[in-house]
Design goal:
The protein has about 190 residues and is mainly α. The protein folds into three domains: about 55 residues, no CATH class; about 45 residues; about 40 residues. Helix content is about 75%, strand content about 5%. It has six helices and two strands. Strands 1-2 form a two-stranded antiparallel ribbon. A hairpin with a 6-residue loop joins strand 1 and strand 2. Helix 5 packs antiparallel against helix 6. The radius of gyration is 44 Å and the shape is elongated. The relative contact order is 0.04. The N terminus is likely disordered. Keywords: Coiled coil.
Amino acid sequence: MLIIKLFRSKKYNCYYKFVKKLEAIELLVSEGWTKADADRALKVVDFTTHPDELTIRKSVSLFAGAELLHRQRLQAAQRTLVTKKTREIERIKEEYTATIEQIKKPQSGKDNNTDIRDLLAKNKSLEATIKNLSLVNEHLKKDNKDMKNIVDAIKLQLTIEMRKLLRYPDNEIRQAAMKFFKSILG
């Protein structure tokens, strides 16, 4: 409840209510403002001059327009982000809880020895597959090396043949051979 202090104006022969800052904040909060927004809006008011309610309302009306609307939109966007993050955290927590429950449950119809045997059999088959793949890999490396040697030999032979061709006196043949030579060897 606001404490109303009425003072008589000598000039207009009427009563004015002078308001303190806390009373002004309470007034704005009662009208739907947040306490922080009310405090920000009242920073422009000089309370040392003992302003009345009308002066306070005029001062905060500038803040109540675009600035307040902008702040409210930012707050709504922030609340939306918080809600999304909270839902995501709850979803992750449920997933972890389900995973933990699944790990804690003993597997029905199997004992640990059977599981170990199965894992050992899988391990042996994987080791055999790795050996086969390493042999194939070595064979492919040798094939790639042989292929590179063949390509290098072809390039060398082509270079030798092109040099012989370039010795001919006809200028057009030499130019065409140079273009061909440059395109092949890069």
